[in-house]
UniProtKB/TrEMBL annotation:
UniProt keyword terms in alphabetical order: ATP synthesis, Kinase, Transferase
Record's keyword annotation contains Transferase: yes
Protein name in UniProt: ADP/GDP-polyphosphate phosphotransferase
Organism phylogeny: Bacteria, Pseudomonadati, Pseudomonadota, Alphaproteobacteria, Hyphomicrobiales
GO biological process terms on file: ATP biosynthetic process
Biased composition (Basic and acidic residues): 1-16, 252-262
Catalytic activity entry: [phosphate](n) + ATP = [phosphate](n+1) + ADP
Tagged with keyword Zinc-finger: no
Family affiliation: Belongs to the polyphosphate kinase 2 (PPK2) family. Class I subfamily.
Domain Polyphosphate kinase-2-related: start-end pairs: 23-247
């Protein structure tokens, strides 16, 4: 007689492990499907000459880097260009604030993803005192007009703000402290953002309220569950761009030339990377 499966026979640990495995398989399948659609989007962008800007802002450790990685890992960096600017130089500090960002806006056939953007002025610059309150308020007044000009020029502009709970942010920061391959992600600014949670909360609340517009609305991405956040956000990006699938014209590889009868393999010594043993 065949054995009858009984979920009650499983221990809580076994059930948890099975649920995690199923979720991971579903996520991998769905992210693969979305990355195929991003490849179709890329083909359409190249053919149509579309210009797209995608802004990612949000709390530190909310998952912006992972989100951008999943978007870009299967497409060309010549089409999907990521912009993550360092602190401004002395020369850039003397320029009009938006000037350094305008230089990175897309040309025809490009998608530019800003890993943080001009909204630094309303977030870290304001909270940490890198910009005066007067300059921050002026930015909040001008940003919607600046973005209106971008959209009116024909650029598709999408803005996403990733949120994370206090508890989840703390868990991720502690994981970065304990994991050598993640320690580089924990900067002094991250520590400040952890300690000044409510200062950033007030700044972000006002930023979202004052710069949300019909032509460039903010879209909030709850990110305590990173995998769910990635699926939701990438799906929304694809739904927000009126792209069409472009038929792929498979090239004819033809025939490879025959080895020349007079070719003699080079016998000089070459350095070969040694194999490692396990």
């Amino acid at each position: 007689m065949d054995e009858v499966y009984d979920a009650k026979q499983e221990t809580p640990m076994e059930r948890k492990g099975k649920q995690k495995k199923t979720k991971s398989w579903d996520y991998n399948k769905e992210i693969r499907r979305l990355q195929i659609e991003l490849a179709h989007l890329q083909a359409w962008v190249k053919k149509s000459g579309a210009r797209i800007v995608i802004i990612f802002e949000g709390r530190d450790a909310a998952g912006k880097g992972g989100m951008i990685k999943r978007i870009t890992e299967k497409v060309s960096p010549r089409v999907f260009r990521v912009v993550a600017l360092p602190a401004p130089t002395d020369r850039e500090k003397s320029q009009i604030y938006m000037q350094r960002y305008i230089a990175h806006l897309p040309a025809a056939g490009e998608v530019v993803i800003f890993d943080r953007s001009w909204y630094n002025r309303a977030g870290v610059d304001r909270v940490m005192g890198f910009a005066s309150e007067k300059k921050a308020q002026r930015f909040l007044e001008l940003a919607p007009r600046f973005e209106a000009a971008i959209v009116e020029s024909g650029v598709i502009l999408l803005k996403y703000f990733l949120t994370v709970s206090e508890e989840e942010q703390e868990r991720r920061f502690k994981r970065r402290i304990d994991d050598p391959v993640r320690q580089w992600k924990l900067s002094p600014m991250d520590v400040e953002s952890y300690q000044r949670w409510w200062d950033y909360t007030r700044a972000y609340d006002e930023m979202l309220r004052m710069t949300d517009s019909n032509h460039a609305p903010w879209w909030i991405v709850p990110s305590d569950d990173k995998e769910r956040a990635r699926i939701n956000c990438i799906s929304h990006i694809l739904q927000s761009i009126p792209y069409q699938r472009v038929k792929f014209e498979a090239p004819d590889l033809g025939k490879r030339q025959k080895r020349p009868s007079d070719y003699i393999e080079d016998q000089s010594v070459r350095n070969v990377v040694p194999e490692t043993t396990r």
